[in-house]
Sequence to fold (364 residues):
Amino acid sequence: MNRPILLLATIIIICTSDVSSQTAEPWRPLFNGQNFEGWKKLNGTAEYRIEDGTIIGVSQKGTPNTFLCTEKDYSDFILELDVKLDYGLNSGIQIRSNSLAEYKDGRVHGYQVELDPSERKWTGGIYDEARRGWLYAMTENKNGDVFNVGTWNHMRIEAIGNSIRTWVNGAPCANLVDDLTSSGFIALQVHSIQNDDQVGKTIEWKNIQIITDSPIKYQSAEDFNVPEYNYSSTLTEREKRTGWRLLWDGKSSQGWRGAKLNHFPEKGWSMKDGILTVHESGGSESNHGGDIVTTDQFSDFELVVDFKITEGANSGVKYFVDPVLNQGEGSAIGLEYQVLDDDVYTLMQKRVWVEIGRLVLYTT
Fold:
């Protein structure tokens, strides 16, 4: 009677071993540890060298940011590496980045995972290099504190679909949703410096490995204690579960009309690439298409808006507006979240425009 039991135990061990080998993460090295095959240097002249399987970047005065970039582009992936940074030398890891002749003469631009040795401690945050600036500052998530300057740290970056998430020494940092760029190279940065005491400082990288084969299978579980910043034109599952909906679909005038019209204005506004733009008006409100209002009415709500203004712009987001009562009075009257360049607007009148990005509304 013992023989069947022993055979069964043997079968279980073999099956378990097979399953384990099938689910092992398919890592492959992104750096061969010996030379820069598969990499190229862009934009600056700071030095990169290799010692004992480690890439070492050396700061140099009089050069712009210098990037060591993969020759290959990557879209969906999981990237891990170890990094060590000298005090006083800011740096970052570029992902889904590009260098295009038609964009700022080949300036490297795109998502950068921050490496921040300062007291600010924003390591793990996401900066849009040479483009939109900070997308995920570590103001609401203090896990960037776990980064240790002068010693080795472990970084993990998951870029899958519209989601970009980061970890520093195992602590979850950024949780960004953005659909501007889906593919590009990976790059290591030696930041430009201004002071003589920064010359010769180093940043080191080693154990650089990547998963590109079905990375979604190895995606980490979401930590709902980490704030999610969504810059895309669609709602995330987290937003849907918590009651958010889009107030503007990012492409049409559906749900909106002129404050004094029963349709959307025929001039003064345009929609392109998920951006709703008010055209320049020569400083006169009467020269553009007028205010626009939602066709629906709302009482209690929470509104999120991404906006950008030019120098001297005067605009705003109004709420609790009753456009019917204010027909013929010019702009719709209501409470207003002011969007204004205070420093310039009161001193001069000039041709200005305002862009309003992603509009999201939460209602009870």
